[in-house]
Structure formats: C-alpha cells, structure tokens
Amino acid sequence: MPELRRDPLSHRWVIIATERAMRPSDFKVENPKPAASICPFCPGNEHLTPPEITAVRPSGSAANKSGWSLRVIPNKFPALRIEGELGRKGYGMYDKMNGIGAHEVIIETADHRLDLPDYPQSQMEMVLRSYRDRISDLKKDPRFKYMLVFKNSGIHAGASLDHPHSQLIAVPVTPKRVSEELFYCRDYYEYKERCLLCDIISQEQLLEERLVVAEENMIAYVPYAPRFPFEVHVLPRRHMHDYCGVSDREIGSLAYVLKTVLKKIRQALGDPAYNYIIHTSPVTLPRPGHPEMWGTIELDYHWHIEIIPRLTRVAGFEWGTGFYINPVAPENAAKFLREENVDA
Amino acid sequence: MPELRRDPLSHRWVIIATERAMRPSDFKVENPKPAASICPFCPGNEHLTPPEITAVRPSGSAANKSGWSLRVIPNKFPALRIEGELGRKGYGMYDKMNGIGAHEVIIETADHRLDLPDYPQSQMEMVLRSYRDRISDLKKDPRFKYMLVFKNSGIHAGASLDHPHSQLIAVPVTPKRVSEELFYCRDYYEYKERCLLCDIISQEQLLEERLVVAEENMIAYVPYAPRFPFEVHVLPRRHMHDYCGVSDREIGSLAYVLKTVLKKIRQALGDPAYNYIIHTSPVTLPRPGHPEMWGTIELDYHWHIEIIPRLTRVAGFEWGTGFYINPVAPENAAKFLREENVDA
C-alpha cells in the first residue's frame, strides 16, 4: 500500500510508493522510457489495459473492444490505491495515512497520431465533458477531497506514452497549491467582497496587454507574474468555483480556446512538451464532521486551467525557494502568442 | 531593470527579466548550453569575469590575478540588479517592485576538474566559511531581506558552467518556501515551546531508520516525507536559526558531512546532477518600520541544508498541485546511502 506522509516543515502531503522496492541502480540515468512498441491505448489493444470505467462508443458495441472514440481506464500503475480505509495515523511525531485514491487515464482519441490542437471541435468537447463526468462521479466517494485533472504531453512533460491521454487523480487531502489558492481567494473576498479571479479577468480585459484569446464565454491570458515563460491561464468569464458547473455551451467555448492556445504555442515555440492542469474547487458536499469547512468557497473561488510549456529547466534557485526567474516578460509572451496566426 | 512581481493567487514573488527581449525562437529547443571552450572561472582568465568581491589568496598577491584558492565575483548575467531603490508600486490591482538584489558566484576551487566530494577538507571548509562571510556582509544592506545560497551541479541541475561554483542571491522579499517553513516552525513552537527541527533531530536519532551520517555536531538524514528520491537534509545538532552563527568547529563537521553525503550519492547513484540549498533565517536585524516582525525566530527556526539529486523529472501532477509522488521509501534511500562505503 502506498503511503501519504506529511512533511512537518511545509505541511505538504507526499505520496511515498513504498512497495516498489526501487534500488539506486534504477536511477542511474535520467532516461525517458522508450515508447512501447505496441501501444496499449490503441484500438484493438484494449486487452492490454485494465477494463474500462467508461467509454464513448456506438450504442450496442461491447465494452473493452474497439469502436470507441474516447475511453477512461484505471491507470495500470496507479500512484494510489482505490481499495481500503484512510487509516490516519501518527508515526512518532509525524503524520501519515494510507495511499488511498483513484488514478484514471482518459484516452482522448482512438487516433494515436492526432495532436490535441488538431482534434475536431466535437472531439475536444468530448474530452472536456469526460473530465466533468469523471470528477462528478468520483465526488460520490466520501474518502476523496480533491480531483486533479491534468495532461502531460511529450516526454519532457512527464508523458510515458505517446498516445494522447490525460489523467485524473482523486486524493483524500486538498493539495498544497490548491489550498494556497483557496486561502488567498478567500482572503481577497473577505477584504473586497469580490472574487479575486473575476477581478483579474476585468483587469486583464481592461489592459489587454496580456490577453491571448478573448471569447464570449472563456478568456485566455498570460498571468501578471507567471513562473514560466509562455504560461497561459484559461478561465470562464462566468463566476464558477467548480469545473463540474460548466455548461455544454461553455464547454464549446473552452474547447475552442484550449485548441487555439495550444495551436499558437505549438506554432510559436516549435511543438514543445507541455502540461495543463485544471484548478477546481475541492469537494464541497457536506461531509460528517465538516459542516462549515468550505465557508464562502462558492463565492470566492473560480476554476481555471493552467497551461505550462516546458521550455526551461528549473534550477536550484527555484527548488530552494519557490522563487522563480522568468526570462520572458508576460506582455511579450502574450503579444507573440496573440500575433501567431492559426486556423480556428 | 528586472521586475519583482507578485502573483495574486499564490502571493509568490517572481523575477521577471523584462529587459532581455527574448523571442519565441530563443526557446525552440530545450538545449543545455554547451560548455564554454574557455572557462572564465579558471586561473589566468580572471579578466573574463567582473572584478572580484573577495578572494582567498596569498597575502600580497594582486586582486583579479591568478594564485587564489577561492574567489567570489558578481554574476556576469545577474537575475537582479544591485543599484537602485526598491520602488514598491501598485500596477492596477497587482504588486511590483524593482528587481533589486545581489547575485554573486562563489568559485569554489581553482581546479576546474575537482569534484566537491574530493575537495580536501580544508577547501570545503573554506567554501562553507565564504558562504557565512558573504551572507554576513550582505546583511548590512538594508534593502535585502533574504540571502539564498545554493549550488547547481551538472547540466540537469541548472549549471551552465562546469567549473565548480555556488551562487548567492540576496533578495528584498522573503521567498515563499522559506516563509512557509518559518510559519510552520513558529506554529509548532507556539504549540510545544520547542523547536520543530530540534524535535525532528531527536526523533530521527531515536528511530535511526532514516539516518545517513550522524556526527558530533552535524546530522544528515532522509526526511520523513521527501519530495524527491534520495533527498537528504543536513543540519546542526545545536539549535541555531542563522547560518551565520555556525562556529569554525561546526564548519569542520559540516564540511565532513556534506562531502560524505555527496560522495555516497555520487557512488550509489552514478554521479547524478544535484542541487543543494541553505535554508537559513531571513535578516533579523532591527529595521525601521519592522520592530517586532520576527517574533520568536531565534527560538523557533533552525537552519539546514537540503540536498536534492536530480533523478526524476517532475511531471504535471507535481506542477499542478505541489503534491509529489516519491517512488523510493525514505527508509530504503537512507539504508542504501548508509551502507555505501566511502573513504572519509
């Protein structure tokens, strides 16, 4: 069973995969795994993955056979285990619990070679709806506090398989970076009685200098103080704390904006590896023992997607401090991306 | 002038290097810089660096000429500028200030090929004393709140030159990760009236399972919930909030422990790139307008050095959440390092 352990100096929870007894020799070279010769995510190879959780397929077609256009499966090498109790425990002065969670893979398309910016609009919408549906479904499990949806594209972004896919991890604690955002959003709300991200949207709209794509329902901009060059945030104009609240109309807009931004990044920066991550609110369903814990979250938090092209290595300075040096002014990054002409 | 900007969602300050107008084409490939053919840090090439700030050299020898055994110079491409006022300003709803700071390079040895674990004990002590002396000197500048000392060794750890060196950055804000540690150390102190890290030392000493090197004055262990495989922390047994308080006797012990740990890592893991970072207290000298800001810091904080071998890539999950998956149990990592036989 993997363990969740809390670092007392940062209060960060870390997943310790205790059961794979890795030896130092497993680490001798920082070698990206070679692409598998047979792709387990391709149609016809469904038997190489765990049985599907859900799939988009013609009505009447058999599960775990080809014919699907999107497929959600459990990760074959999960970071957390779905079965068991949380088992919160002290260990001397330290805190731990069992590594309980869900780890799913969303296979975004049957086409091994299709790159996300080139997805038909309907395919991209299908992917974004699957995120919403999986988060909603996992919310029913009272052990999970947070559902994290992310995509690693390219070896340098951590992808170990080429076939286009994203991942979902459900965890029993609210991750540190999310807690921080929740804290600062609430702090701002208490001071202003307005949502911080709603205010950022209107500030960015007013200044225009960091906008990348502005659409009726969604907006994409380079944030004012980004950690990484060409980092882009995408968010709904409508105030909404939870990604699950996104309407089908907004999904259409989000699909368009995400495809456009990633197409611009691909074209401007030479097809870099990238990550995107959905920042949404933790599970807010009433839970025994936690009647009031979320306070004004429905008013003060606003979901968004962070897109991070993997262009620079993070060196000692960044690790040591959480203090980042970004060599590209956000206004320049936004201008380059804005002016990059791409097909809609 | 570079800018310091604060991200409103995380309250993290980021250095934006606005003046180098980098274009997207500068980023097209993630290519480590090739090693310079002429090393500017080697003896005889002193004219290729800015004039030295200080150096260890035979008495009577001329500055900026060869003959030195350690040399401290300003970084030729500094992330921050030493001249100017902080100029704290609002920009719409955002916060910024001028990118004021110091960025120095400590050239640790005249020998281009010498690897830190192989330094003579006296050379390693000289390096550690130079850190103490430079921090002490920069404390006199009332604009600086924090002095960050770190070493990037190897291209994968962010080093752009092979010649052994470390860096010091003085910044006008307390970096986020340090603030967090200060917060949790103070929180623990308020609850227990004891130093968190003193308690961790006695816990680790008691359990022994995560110890790497235990010495009279210094202790090295794999922390209970490390973010990275084979991460090691080194700290003084004596309670001390500020690295500048380290005695010459303790420097001797620190030099021995640091060399030993890095030798074990090199041998066990095949000479990986690594970073180490000194976590010390912010400047606590009384400053106008901040009479009481440091509270009990002399009682509740405890300096330490983090050593991070660069073995695994950080993927989307980690970026998105500040939530790390560590595939090596700390107890196994410590055991491997403990059992690695190295010459003293």
Spatial order of strands in the largest sheet of chain A: 3-4-7-9-8-13-14-12-11-10
Distance between the termini of chain A: 47 Å
- CA-based gyration radius of chain A: 20 Å
Largest sheet of chain A: 10 strands, antiparallel
Poorly predicted runs of chain A are: none
**Tally of distinct domains of chain A:** 1
Helix content of chain A: 25-40%
CATH topology of chain A: HIT family, subunit A
Portion in strands of chain A: 15-25%
3D shape of chain A: globular
Number of helices of chain A: 7
Number of strands of chain A: 15
Give your account of this protein's structure.
Two copies of one chain form a homodimer. Chain A has 344 residues and is an alpha+beta fold. The first copy, chain A, has a single domain, classed as HIT-like (HIT family, subunit A). Helices cover 26% and strands 21% of the residues of chain A. Chain A has seven helices and 15 strands. Chain A has helices spanning 121-138, 176-192, 196-207, 248-269, 297-300, 316-321, 330-339, and strands at residues 3-6, 13-16, 54-56, 70-74, 89-91, 94-98, 102-107, 146-153, 165-171, 211-214, 218-221, 232-236, 274-279, 304-309, 324-326. Chain A has a ten-stranded antiparallel beta sheet, with helices on both faces. In chain A, strands 2-1-6-5 form a four-stranded antiparallel beta sheet, with no helix packed on it. In chain A, helix 1 (121-138) packs across helix 4 (248-269). The longest helix of chain A has 22 residues, at 248-269. The radius of gyration of chain A is 20 Å and the shape is globular. At the A-B interface, strand 2, strand 8, strand 9, helix 2 and helix 3 of A face strand 2, strand 8, strand 9, helix 2 and helix 3 of B. Strand 2 (13-16) of chain A pairs parallel with strand 15 of chain B, so a sheet runs across the interface.
